[in-house]
Amino acid sequence: MYKLITTLSACFFIFISWIIYLANTGQNSIFFELVAAIPYGDKVGHFCLFGLLTLGANFALKLKEFELKFIQLYAGSTLVFLFVLVEELSQYFIPSRTLDASDLLADIAGILVFNFMTKVFSKLMNKHAGA
Predict the structure, then answer these.
(1) 60-75 pLDDT, tens per residue?
(2) Which residues have C-beta within 8 Å of that of residue 22, sequence separation ≥ 6?
(3) Do 104 and 47 contact (CB within 8 A), yes or no?
(4) Contact, 57 vs 79, CB < 8 A?
(5) Residue 74: beta bridge partners?
(6) Pseudo-torsion of CA 110, 64, 11, 49, nearest 10°?
(7) φ, ψ dihedrals at 110, nearest 5°
(8) Chain centre distance of CA 22
(9) In this model, does residue 31 exceed pLDDT 80?
């Protein structure tokens, strides 16, 4: 099961990277048209894409945690946050992109919600494994 989750997470990361490449180079995609057709589709897309990437990264990294100033953080969530931060801030320097704080907030909201879901799923898995 771990190999499947890791493979799916890696493929999803590649998909997101491809979408970012298309946006950075000003190319069109059917995905951009779908997002535009949904009310608040851009924000929902940011929330879901980076939230799901967070969930996948957390499980692909076997729920590895570390402590930062008395707070336990998942390594996967942290890596996705750093990726999102660099990606969103880099848009300032790319002529075909627009730096948008609300996109970053949607990304962070997705990371936080799916970080919480990681905790819930891991507790359920541990409870089920112990039963």
Answers:
(1) 999 999 998 889 999 9
(2) 28, 29, 32
(3) no
(4) yes
(5) 65
(6) 0
(7) -60, -45
(8) 18
(9) yes
pLDDT tens by residue, 83-120: 999 999 999 999 989 999 999 999 999 999 999 999 99
Instruction: Look up tokens 């969930």; give the residue.
Output: 55
For the chain, give the mean pLDDT. Answer: 93
Give the per-residue pLDDT at 88. 96
Full-model pTM? 0.91
Q: What is the DSSP string of 22-75?
A: HHHTT---HHHHHHHHSTTHHHHHHHHHHHHHHHHHHHHTTT-EEEETTEEEEH
Measured from the Cβ of residue 43, the count of other Cβ atoms closer than 10 Å reads 19
Exposure letters 110-128 (e unless 16+ CB within 10 A, then b): bbeebbeebeeeeeeeeee
Phi, psi of 57 (to 5 degrees): -65, -40
Indicate whether 131 pLDDT > 90. Answer: no
Q: Is 88 helix (H, G, I), strand (E, B) or coil?
A: helix
Give 99's contacts (C-beta < 8 A, 6+ positions apart): 88, 89, 91, 92
